Amino acid sequence: MLAYIVRRVLYAIPILIGVNLLTFTLFFVVNTPDDMARMQLGIKRVTPEAIVKWKAERGYDKPLVYNERSQGVRALTDTIFFEKSVRLFAFDFGRSDNGDDISWQIRNRMVPSLALALPVFVLGLYVTVSLALFQVLFRGTWLDVWGVILCVAMMSISSLFYIIGGQFVVSKLWRLVPISGYGEGIDVVRFLLLPVVVGVIGNIGANTRWYRTIFLEEIGRDYVRTARAKGLAETAVLFRHVLRNALIPILTGAVVVIPLLFMGSLIAESFFGIPGLGSYTIDAINAQDFAIVRAMVFLGSVLYIVGLILTDISYTLVDPRIRFE
What we know:
CATH topology of the domain at 102-318: MetI-like fold
Shape: globular
């Protein structure tokens, strides 16, 4: 197992380098360092001296990926790409183009992101698995048919509809919770209640259909017929056998997203005014702050790889037949 984890970590290094290079290329295809300087300075008539000073202060005064003025290895290392990328692998995210400490922002914004994403993940998993089991229990009946129709309808509706509709009905008409914002201490519950409910409802359609398909595939296997032949009730068959044997595909979709919970929700945090990593990333994209965008893409890639490794490890916990040599 340890050797397998080490191999996966080593495989991740070229992937992270490729992701970083792709992010770097895409960003600078759209914006040159001069364009970034003009936007950050926020002045209509920016002098060439001000642009040169801004680039020198933030390390954008060098060539992008190859320095013709340097010799040997320095031609590759004395570049914006190398100097901005190497520190990422030590999780030193440096400062944003506005001068803020990115690592400090990530640490402080991680808590609001988790406060929103963790309840949505846990409640959503519980609700969708329960609804899927309920549909399988009454498969072929009108409850199952209308359940599938409802799930398809909910899948077809944009998540923005749930967000805007929830804000309009619950916050503006009923005035039960604030429309947006974020509080401190126990007061944070008032601000998170609506985003959590909207997040859970928005995922019911797709996830319930997915889990229902998994359970229906398991319900026709030989071990289920054997369990029924022994006289077990249908509920016992579902919860003792079907659910347990369907854990691997469920874990595939669940465990892999656990590390990504730290990244927050881009849309929900922006609409509900939650100061998490999702809204932080959106603001950085709007401001064309390459330092923040690069750091968040890199962090997201690392967390996704960690999620894949955790998924593989979790397989061994639910299925003893799986071993990694």
